[in-house]
Amino acid sequence: MTMTITGQDIIPLHTYRQGREDYLNKMIPYKKARRVRLDDYVTLLFENKNTVLYQILELIHCEDLEDQAEIDEYIEIYSGMLPNENELSATLFIELDNQLKLQDLLKKLKGIEHHLSLVVGDETIPAVFEEVHDDREFTTSVHYLKFPLTETAKQYLLNESSESLTVTLNLNHPQLTRAATLSQECLKSLQKDLL
User: Fold this and answer.
1) Under 8 Å CB-to-CB from 15, ≥6 apart: which residues?
2) DSSP readout, the chain?
3) Which residues lie below 8 Å from residue 163, measured CB to CB, with a gap of 6+?
4) What pLDDT, in 10s, does the model give residues 105-161?
């Protein structure tokens, strides 16, 4: 199912602010279930309409936006993060509080775009990054990417119970090799995205 966000999905700013605390209390655990930790400094968040809409609403809130043209611009920009049919979408974060250490880490992880994959059952699906940064000496701290699913991988995800699924996120970079198995909670959430 292809996901879209339109102006009709955007709650008016004053209404959003009235219910924001309750919304945050729902979205924080929702996003936590969709986050996969590869390392102390590297995490991946699987995106869908709920997570992207949350990001847009928070931007509108933080920037005090009520101008529809500006809101539409945010919708257009962030809609690229939505998964298309037969794919999973994600944001990869490389985060460190110490700015100097972060700069060093971003240099070490240059080329990370060529070393991330999702193993779904017996299939390895390389991540397709929105941008590749081969022309510089460092990578960026935020990456948007997609995992295009084969029909076999999609059916495996949809037709198996989350308890019997084996899905692993693999980072095989010369400077950092990590693997993380997706939790049942994460898999259940991703299965809903694919329906």
Assistant:
1) none
2) ------GGGPPPHHHHHHHHHHHHHHHHHHHHHTEEESSSSEEEEEE-HHHHHHHHHHHHHHTT---HHHHHHHHHHHGGGS--TTEEEEEEEE--SSHHHHHHHHHHTTTGGGSEEEEETTEEEE-EES---TTSSS--SEEEEEEEPPHHHHHHHHHS-TTT--EEEEEEETTEEEEEEPPHHHHHHHHHHH-
3) 184
4) 999 999 999 999 999 999 999 999 998 878 889 999 999 999 999 999 999 999 988
2: in domain? no
**Domain extent at residue 185:** 7-194
Does the pLDDT value for residue 59 go beyond 60?
yes
Answer yes or no: is 174 within a domain.
yes
Cα angle value 69/75/80 (rounded, 5°):
140
For 99, 156, 166, 175, the CA distances from 122, given in Å and listed in that order, are: 39, 10, 9, 26
Number of domains in the chain: 1
Furthest C-alpha separation in the chain: 49
pTM over 0.85: yes
